[in-house]
């Protein structure tokens, strides 16, 4: 099968999935009447960090943010266009973003170009005309990347191989207190959700993160994390997602779990791998397949809440 044929086949499969989503949405909303979408299309705003931006997935369309034209907001746009209504996407996701970059210009970037320019506060893209908002944020606020550097074996800090991940993070050079950072991030996300709600009545969806490791990791595949480190890091990421879900529920938003549906697609499989391993300038980020998988799950969650086309 040629690449072109593969792409055509993938589109056919995704349209088929879209038809299923529409049927489910109609069944869910049969008892209520939804307003029609605006004539110029459903206004969709995507906010978030690199988990949504898609660094190193060709083609990147924003130098500072390493934003891909095949990230899950773009894939979600395509699904909704094919199955629900015309969509107009404002994708302002940005690699390296923290919660603060949602409400103030972002000036610090992951792998910036030679002359980086500030990026406007992401929330500026949200207004009273917005019909759908997605938000993926938090991993940078809890210093997930720094923890992964410290807990790998070998590592740049020369920790002994047998030293536990949690003990490494307590080292003064690292000083990562996950419970405190997760709690702070939850409060910050809650404040942003309230600001978003002040700008629009559109449904807001907070999206979690894909599965990284199965239980005890996958060292046999060359992954530089011991079973202890893989379990500890995945558990803390799960703690973050639990906090995000709690804050979404408390602040008038919906939470979309992509962790569960991606359980067999993490770094260890056994299904198709949706995350890069320790490769490239942005290791441990979603692949194009991961973006497609995430978009499919998000589409299932958002479709019942959208205005009819």
Topology:
Elements: H1 3-29, E1 42-48, H2 50-53, E2 60-62, E3 67-68, H3 72-83, E4 87-91, H4 100-103, E5 132-136, H5 144-151, H6 165-169, H7 178-199, E6 204-207, H8 227-250, E7 254-256, H9 288-302
Q: How widely separated are the two ends?
A: 35 Å
What name is given to the CATH topology of the domain at 33-141 and 178-216 and 238-305? Answer: Rossmann fold
Largest sheet: 5 strands, parallel
Global mean pLDDT: 88
Name of the CATH class of the domain at 33-141 and 178-216 and 238-305: Alpha Beta
Count all strands and give the number. 7
Helix fraction bin = 25-40%
CATH architecture tag of the domain at 33-141 and 178-216 and 238-305: 3-Layer(aba) Sandwich
Q: Could you name the CATH homologous superfamily of the domain at 33-141 and 178-216 and 238-305?
A: SGNH hydrolase
Low-confidence stretches: 1-38
Work out the helix count. 9
Short description:
With 309 residues, this protein is α/β, with parallel strands linked by helices. It contains 9 helices and 7 strands.
Explain this structure to me?
The strands form two sheets. The protein has a five-stranded parallel sheet with strand order 4-1-5-6-7, sandwiched between helices. It has a two-stranded antiparallel ribbon with strand order 2-3. It is α/β, with parallel strands linked by helices. The chain contains nine helices and seven strands. The chain is globular, with a radius of gyration of 19 Å. It has a domain of 216 residues: Rossmann fold, CATH 3.40.50.
């Amino acid at each position: 099968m040629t690449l072109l044929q593969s792409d055509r086949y993938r589109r056919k499969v995704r349209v088929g999935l879209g038809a299923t989503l529409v049927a489910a949405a109609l069944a869910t909303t049969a008892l209520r009447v939804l307003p029609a979408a605006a004539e110029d299309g459903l206004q969709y705003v995507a906010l978030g960090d690199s988990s949504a931006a898609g660094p190193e997935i060709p083609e990147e369309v924003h130098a500072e943010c390493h934003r891909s034209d095949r990230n899950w907001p773009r894939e979600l746009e395509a699904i909704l266009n094919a199955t629900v209504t015309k969509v107009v996407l404002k994708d302002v996701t940005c690699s390296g973003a923290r919660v603060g970059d949602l409400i103030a210009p972002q000036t610090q970037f992951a792998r910036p170009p030679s002359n980086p320019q500030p990026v406007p506060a992401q929330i500026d893209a949200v207004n009273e005309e917005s019909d759908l908002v997605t938000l993926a944020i938090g991993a940078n606020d809890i210093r997930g990347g720094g923890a992964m550097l410290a807990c790998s074996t070998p590592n740049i800090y020369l920790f002994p191989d047998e030293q536990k991940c949690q003990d490494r993070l307590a080292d003064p050079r690292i000083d990562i207190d996950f419970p405190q950072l997760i709690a702070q991030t939850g409060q910050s996300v809650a404040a942003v959700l309230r600001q978003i709600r002040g700008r629009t009545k559109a449904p807001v969806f907070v999206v979690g993160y894909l599965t990284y490791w199965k239980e005890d990791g996958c060292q046999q595949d060359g992954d530089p994390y011991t079973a202890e480190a893989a379990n500890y890091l995945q558990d803390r990421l799960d703690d973050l997602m639990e906090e995000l879900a709690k804050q979404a529920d408390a602040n008038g938003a919906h939470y979309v779990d992509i962790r569960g549906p991606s359980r067999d697609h993490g770094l260890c499989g056994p299904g198709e791998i949706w995350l890069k391993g320790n490769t490239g300038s942005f290791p441990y980020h979603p692949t194009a397949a991961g973006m497609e998988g995430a978009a499919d799950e998000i589409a299932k969650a958002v479709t019942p809440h959208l205005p009819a086309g």
